[in-house]
Write a structure and sequence with these properties.
5-stranded antiparallel sheet; 3 helices; 5 strands
Length: about 110
Amino acid sequence: MDTQIIRDTINKNYLAELASRRFVDLVKAVVDIEREIMAIGGELHADEEAALIADGSQQRNLWGINFYPALTGDDWVEFDSMINVRPSQNNRSRGVEDPSTQTKIRAIVKKLVE
């Protein structure tokens, strides 16, 4: 599956279908918190990051997450990716350490995934 840039609403069932094709229960995604778009479908978060940068995103605005379509509530979004390790932005782990950035990501996901 090729990386797709998501600008309009997609269905959570679509994510479940993508998950079943590659990682069984998860879909990797990268969210641009400035442009409020995301990329999905890559084998690596770095693939999705590269697609968004080629589309005009700036790396400092990109955060890697995982979707678990079978889960509900806050559990279905996981903040875990190697691209999130950014000491220059005071993010020293694979997670998204800043609560306000997490809130932005969740709001964008809520807007793009029904």
